[in-house]
Amino acid sequence: MPRVFFLLFVVAALTLPSWGYAEDSLVVYSGRAERLIQPVLDAFQAESGISVQMLTADSTALINRLRMEGARTPADVLITNDAGTLERARELQLFQTTTVPGLEETIPSRFRAPDNSWIGLSGRIWVIVYNTTMVRPGDISSILDLAAPKWKGKIAIPSAGSVYLQTGVSVIRAVKGDEVTAVFLRGLKDNAGSFVYGKNRQIVAAVARGEVAAGPVNHYYINRHLAKHPDAPIAPLLTDQGDQGMGVVLNAAGVGITAHTKRLAQARALIRFLISPEGQSMFANVNKEYPLNPHVTAAPELLPLQSFQVAQVPLSRLARLRDPTMTVIEDVGLR
Hints:
Blueprint: H1 3-14, E1 26-30, H2 34-48, E2 52-56, H3 59-69, E3 77-80, H4 83-91, H5 103-106, E4 119-131, E5 157-158, H6 163-176, H7 178-192, E6 196-197, H8 200-209, E7 214-218, H9 219-228, E8 234-237, E9 249-257, H10 264-275, H11 277-286, E10 290-291, H12 318-332
Helix pairs in contact: 1-3, 2-10, 2-11, 4-12, 6-7, 6-12
């Protein structure tokens, strides 16, 4: 990680709130927004009788907090919204190998660390949200098309600090190389102009208002917007399909048991619940994410995960790809 980003995250970790935790409570550090993970934790607590306390913050800040706390950490479990961050935690030896009955049959190996120290829980794909009055689906076949001059002033993009942008660019680098990636990023920068946002939902809203024609986002932000505004003129577009396509970028939220947990049995019980049909169905129906348990179907408004082409870049590579990707992003001058 570039030094300036590292220092910012250390500062963020140092300024996170601190309070006492009940000794009998399972402590979860969560890089996911509370509204996305709390309903699942509430269901686990109701079913198991195990009390859960949660601290929510930026995932990288939480990793730095775990590093500083060491064996004194109260955290039993870390949940994040990005497989690259999970792998980074594994590399820093912040996790221990997770042994849960039925894990291998429940979550496919491509959604787990090689040593099962982290486990994917739900998937999201990077799609293009487009305004149906301004764009025809055939106008865009690849995410790289957004860099074409015809889209100047017509697209919105995530900011450089977005983990979703970093993941998407990492996958493009792995498949297409640095030169193609740099050309793509320069085109995005030129075409987006001032339409650069820190949140995916802001991109979706800008497209829905017709301020821009399209932009790359995680798929579920489109579903959430349509749930509130069913008449909004927006739709998702899956890109890079077919024989010549690299496939859409897929990332996963996931979980790991901390190396110094004092409540191992309770932590394992939580993971058993999160990968169970009940837990996975909540990710599908509440959050509109893709359940990674193949025995659980996605929400009816989503295309089945098996029905489209996904970029074949292992999730375990995302951590190693992140630093050089940030260098390319900074060199291009994305803000």
